[in-house]
Structures are given as C-alpha cells and as structure tokens.
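Per your request, structure below.
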C-alpha cells in the first residue's frame, strides 16, 4: 500500500500566530512561493476577517499561487465566511476552512452554547461556505478534549452538509500518540459517512508530541496533516512540516504513505521562514538544524567514511542541506558568483546581483574562505524588497571595560553624507543612538540576537533585530565579520524596510 498524505501548510496562519512572528504582505507571498516550490498540497494563507492586512495577504497569495490549493480560515460566522470566500475567490483552487469548538470546556466557558446550538451552527456554516466554493474543511476545535459521541455527531452532520475534509485538532497539545491515534481510529469506525471526507489532523506541541501525534494519526487513517515550517505556531507551535514529511519518507516501511513534497526544497524554505520571522532554528533541530547532519565524534566520523549508512538515516542532499564546502574566494568573478547562486536556487535580477556581488567582494577581502552559507547570508533579505535608502559608509568605535563606549558613524542617503558621534551603554547602544539621531527615527529595539553563519574565528556574524518604528515592528538582519557593523546593518535594514514600505504605499 502507498497512500498519499496531503500536506496542509499553515505557516502563514497558525505559524503567524506565534508571538512575534508577524509578516508583511510581500514576505507572506515569498513564503507562499517557497511552499509552492515545496509542493505542499494546501496553503492556509491566513484568517481574512481578522484584519484588512490579513485579507489582502490571503487575496495576494490566492492571486499568485497556481499549484497549491489556497485556503482561508473562518469562524462559524457569516462575516468570517464572506471574508474568506472573497479573499480566495481569485484562486485557481480555493478552500474555506471553518472551525467551531466542540469540547465541553469551550462550550460552557467560551461559547456559552449548548450542544444542539453548536451542531446547528456547524451545519449552517458549512452549507453557507459550500454556496461559495466546493472545497470546504471543517474543524471541531479542541476535538481531542471533546466527548466522543458528540464529536461523531458533529462530524457526520458536517459531512452531510458538504464538508470534504474534517480536521481533528489537538488544539491545546494535550493528547498523546496512543490516545490520538485511537481517536482517529474511533472516528473511522463510528462516523457512518466518514469515507466521504478526508480525515485531517492538526496537532500543537505543548507536550512536544505534535509530530508523534500526527504520525500516530496517519497510522490510523488520517490522510491530511496540518503543519508548519520549523514547527512555528501558537504557543509551543505546530507539528513541524519537515519532520512529518521526512518521517513518512524515511519510514515508509512503517507508514506505507508518501507525500507530494519535493524534499530538496526543505532547507531553503526553513531558512526563509527563520529569516522572515526572526525565529532562529536551534542547531539540534531535527532535519533543518545546523547540526542535523554533522558528525562530531571520531567513531562516528570513522564509520561515515567507511559507509554512510552506519550513522546516516537520511541523505543531507535530500533535504537540500548545504555542506560547508569552500566555494568562492577573492579572485572569483561575477559570472562564477552568479552561477554559484543559481546552483543554490537563488535567482537575482541584474541590479540585485550587482549589490550582492559588491557585498561578496567586500567579504572575500576580509575572509579567506567564503562558504555557501555566507553567500546566502549576503543575498537573502539584504537585496530583496528593501530599498537601501540609508547606507552605512563607515564606523569607528572605542570601547573598553573602564570607559564609556563611543562611536563615530557615517551614513549616506540620496547622495549626501551624514556624520554623528554618540556614546551609549555599549558599542551597539552607541551605534543605534547615532543612527536614530542621523535618520531622525526613534526605533525601539524589541529583540536582538547574534549568530555565526559559518565556523571559525573569522566567521560571518548575523545579527537579527526586531525594531518598533512608529507602531510598526519589523524584523531585519545584518551580516558582517565585524559584529558592530552587522548590528548597524541590521538596524539600518529595519529602518529601510519601514521607509521602503511607506514609499511603495
Ligand atoms: O489549533 C486549532 O484548533 C486551530 C483550528 C483553527 C484548526 O488552529
Ligand atoms: Zn492550531
């Protein structure tokens, strides 16, 4: 048996509900394209009624995506379903996903409705959505904590009303694999019309069991899994897409199922989501962590050299994992640079390429070895979507344990150069004060992190900042072999992002 398991990606909806993960319209579209390249079957693009911005983003994704179904979420309320229907109207293939809680806790405390009222609302809403589109999914929210007999009744009724997918959420991540798998088996055995719909699962990771629960559900007949890239999502997150897909692929002997996902695109999509949300992927994260395919111990390395399968259950290239092979150096030309980027799946237009090449040359002058990861860091985010309204010309810092750190900073905008000397609690603080003063911006630094892109003392440092500027929070990045320069670049990138958005409005 080799059944297909449909991959329903909700990075843009549940993933975006992760505290601090909001993305703008361009960023969401960029992720949607990455999901389409991955070959996910369904992209849940947002919750259109929640804001005008979300409505526009879902509509934008629906307009551009051709290969995946584009889905909009709605509560069992007419105005929600209208908004979802309007947002996905332009899609080549669209879906409306309606949800309503069925657990006693939610009925009593949140919805203040009895079971019969809930049943009626669910049926009416599915019928209402069905008038707009054929493809309707229904989720009994908090299904895993709902009374089973009531759950069966609701599922049967919504299928009779036209739902083509029924999703069984473990909304609060309370279930455990043996129990959740049994729930799916029980639904199969107790809902008489269940064969008319696809059973979907949607698991949260509060107990770290989202992936295990989803796989247990697949073993018991679920044929759609809802998940997110890097497992981002509400609270502890959702089931991680890359883990589900690679578990089904690697252990097809157990699951007897496959997906339509082009696994070689996984690493790239993971990096993109991490960049745009500012959520750093831990090095030990399965499938996409920097250490996921690195072997440190001598015994393991020896085994690997003799026969890869001694310590490797998946090939890194199957998930598009980049090695740290030396690729380019100081003497490499623009053509070699362009070809290498193309091999990494990065296509730039001529002006983006010019900017990226200039950055590469700067880096190659400072750093002996330039790795694939360095190239990606140079290119991604820095040259896309953002006009470099303010650029860094120069900076000089003095700091020490017994002195107040000082910076002399030079920036450029529209051909004019500006200089400022500032001091602060540390060199980064001094730098950000100088940038604020020159650009006349009052940025509030909400988050700051630094990571090395590759190994070694001369490694590229990548600074990620979350900055609030005039009620808008943006995530931005800066890379350099000098961490103060990377910090300045990241902060300027945030300011440029806000200014570019203003100019393009
Ligand atoms: O976790 C949940 O129950 C949800 C539903 C909207 C499917 O995200
Ligand atoms: Zn959820």
């Amino acid at each position: 048996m080799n059944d297909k398991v449909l991959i329903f990606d909700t990075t843009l909806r549940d993933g975006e509900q992760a505290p601090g993960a909001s993305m703008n319209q361009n960023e969401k579209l960029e992720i949607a394209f990455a999901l389409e390249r991955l070959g996910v079957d369904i992209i849940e693009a947002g919750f259109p009624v929640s804001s005008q911005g979300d409505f526009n983003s879902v509509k934008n994704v629906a307009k551009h995506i051709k290969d995946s179904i584009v889905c909009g979420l709605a509560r069992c309320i007419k105005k929600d379903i209208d908004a979802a229907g309007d947002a996905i109207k332009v899609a080549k293939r669209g879906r409306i996903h309606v949800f309503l809680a069925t657990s006693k806790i939610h009925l009593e405390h949140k919805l203040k409705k009895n079971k019969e009222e809930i049943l009626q609302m669910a049926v009416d809403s599915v019928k209402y959505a069905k008038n707009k589109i054929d493809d309707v999914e229904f989720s009994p929210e908090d299904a895993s904590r709902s009374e089973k007999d009531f759950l069966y009744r609701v599922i049967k009724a919504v299928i009779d009303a036209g739902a083509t997918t029924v999703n069984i959420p473990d909304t609060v991540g309370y279930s455990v694999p043996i129990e959740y798998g049994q729930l799916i088996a029980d639904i199969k055995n107790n809902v008489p019309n269940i064969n008319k719909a696809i059973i979907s699962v949607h698991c949260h990771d509060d107990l770290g069991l989202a992936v295990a629960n989803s796989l247990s559900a697949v073993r018991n007949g679920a044929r759609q899994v809802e998940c997110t890239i890097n497992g981002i999502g509400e609270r502890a997150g959702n089931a991680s897409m890359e883990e589900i897909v690679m578990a089904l692929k690697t252990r097809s002997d157990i699951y007897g199922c496959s997906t339509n996902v082009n696994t070689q695109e996984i690493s790239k999509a993971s990096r993109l989501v991490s960049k745009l949300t500012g959520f750093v992927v831990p090095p030990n994260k399965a499938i996409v962590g920097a250490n996921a395919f690195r072997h440190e111990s001598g015994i393991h390395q020896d085994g690997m050299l003799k026969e890869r399968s001694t310590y490797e259950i998946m090939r890194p290239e199957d998930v598009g994992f980049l090695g740290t092979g030396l690729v380019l150096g100081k003497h490499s030309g623009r053509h070699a640079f362009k070809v290498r980027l193309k091999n990494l799946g990065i296509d730039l237009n001529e002006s983006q390429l010019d900017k990226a090449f200039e950055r590469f040359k700067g880096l190659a002058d400072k750093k002996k070895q330039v790795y694939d990861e360095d190239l990606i860091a140079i290119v991604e985010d820095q040259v896309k979507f953002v006009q470099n309204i303010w650029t860094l010309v120069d900076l000089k810092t003095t700091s020490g344990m017994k002195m107040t750190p000082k910076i002399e900073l030079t920036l450029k905008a529209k051909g004019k150069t500006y200089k400022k000397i500032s001091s602060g609690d540390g060199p980064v603080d001094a730098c950000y004060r100088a940038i604020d003063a020159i650009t006349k911006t009052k940025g509030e630094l909400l988050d700051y992190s630094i990571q090395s892109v590759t190994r070694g003392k001369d490694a590229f440092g990548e600074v990620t900042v979350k900055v609030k500027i005039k009620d808008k929070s943006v995530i931005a990045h800066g890379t350099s072999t000098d961490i103060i320069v990377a910090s300045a670049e990241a902060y300027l990138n945030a300011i440029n992002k806000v200014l570019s958005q203003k100019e393009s409005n």
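The chain has a mean pLDDT of 91.

Regards,
D.
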